[in-house]
Specification:
87 residues, alpha+beta, 3 helices, 25% strand
């Protein structure tokens, strides 16, 4: 399981699992329950590159959103994976 501390959203943390480039599980801690559950159900099972492409740049307030923060979490995950910091 991976964990990402969000910034600028009601959601404070995103917990997720990736297997072979596919998002296997996703949980937002806090945030708008209906919206974060909806994003989670739609995103699980998708390739993380597709999730990033669809959600990056979506704004709610403060220049970001929970979906945008998920995209940032997955981008950071990919960078850490490329450096060998994630197995």
């Amino acid at each position: 399981m991976e964990s990402y501390r969000t910034s600028g959203t009601c959601c404070r943390q995103i917990i997720f699992e990736v297997d072979d480039g596919v998002l296997k599980s996703l949980k937002f801690v806090n945030g708008c329950s209906g919206n974060t559950q909806g994003v989670s159900r739609l995103a699980v099972g998708m390739k993380i590159d597709d999730v990033i492409d669809k959600l990056k740049g979506i704004q709610c307030r403060g220049g970001t959103s929970c979906p945008d923060q998920l995209a940032k979490a997955l981008i950071e995950y990919k960078e850490r994976l490329a450096r060998g910091e994630v197995r």
